[in-house]
Amino acid sequence: MAFNLFSRPRRAFSSLSEQEILALAISSEEDDARIYKSYAEHLRPEYPDSAKIFDDMAMVEDSHRRMLIDMHKRRFGDVIPLIRREHVRGFYERRPDWLMKSLPLDKIRDQTVTMEEQACRFYRAAAAQVSDADTRKLLGDLAMAEEAHEETAVALSEKHAPEDVRDEESMKERRQFVLTWVQPGLAGLMDGSVSTLAPIFAAAFATQDTKQTFLIGLSAAVGAGISMGFTEAAHDDGKLSGRGSPIKRGIASGVMTMVGGLGHALPYLIPEFWTATIVAIIVVFFELWAIAFIQNKYMETPFMRAAFQVVLGGGLVLAAGMLIGSG
């Protein structure tokens, strides 16, 4: 929602102590090992060789975790601070493995390449931030190990899915396009389309004045766009997550939020109330289905689930606005 500008703050990566950096690395390796084990179990029936590769990758992540824990013990003792990805601003996030159970091998490959790119980027940034020579060497070695894992993930498709092999540069370019433009743009479109439904239609049914309704819708869309744009830009500088320029992401999020809100506000430029309202409802219908389509195409969300979530949720917000305005 647009008010996520005031959501719970996260720590800046630059503010982490060397102990906290090690703790973050430990928890991240634990999570990645679990994800690779889940991939292995999913692939084992159809791709047993690929499953073995993911088993090996999980074992390597576990060995990384043990190395990091040993370093933490030597420098800071046995008590490891609880710090995870979601506690750090701009840090890459992992999708829960239960969302991956139905993914084909080439999609898992894409996710794995992204994971290893992000882990390598983290270790390089972490190594640059610590001063202890042994810790810096360990983090640099782990960055090189994660880079080697990335090459292994790319090789999976060449061995087991040759028909889906694409040029590596074009694959990275598409993934970067999704991270920089599609994800923040989709979040903005959803926010603008759904969060402005209730105030616009409540104002419409309360006043039955198309001019006032348009002005309320315009202010809601512009305000939400500015809020979402600044939130996206300030939330993540892109250096650790690899999501690209914060300015580009802020523009994508802000503009699409505004577009989502203006879509059902513009019909109220029509002077006749019921004509404007019917047109606005039709626009809402197409907005919600467009969001479901984008989620399915770029975010790998099953279309029926996306449609159910977006259309049902949007319909409930629309109905709430009408009921509130009519009351």
From TrEMBL:
One GO CC term on file: endomembrane system
Gene Ontology terms: biological process: intracellular manganese ion homeostasis
GO molecular function, one term: metal ion binding
Bilayer-spanning residue ranges: 181-206, 212-230, 276-294, 306-325
The keyword DNA-binding appears for this protein: no
Subcellular location as annotated: Endomembrane system
Membrane topology: Multi-pass membrane protein
Domain Rubrerythrin diiron-binding: 20-156
Keywords in alphabetical order: Membrane, Transmembrane, Transmembrane helix
Cross-referenced PANTHER family: BLR7895 PROTEIN, RUBRERYTHRIN SUBFAMILY
Protein name: Rubrerythrin family protein
Lineage of origin: Bacteria, Pseudomonadati, Pseudomonadota, Alphaproteobacteria, Hyphomicrobiales
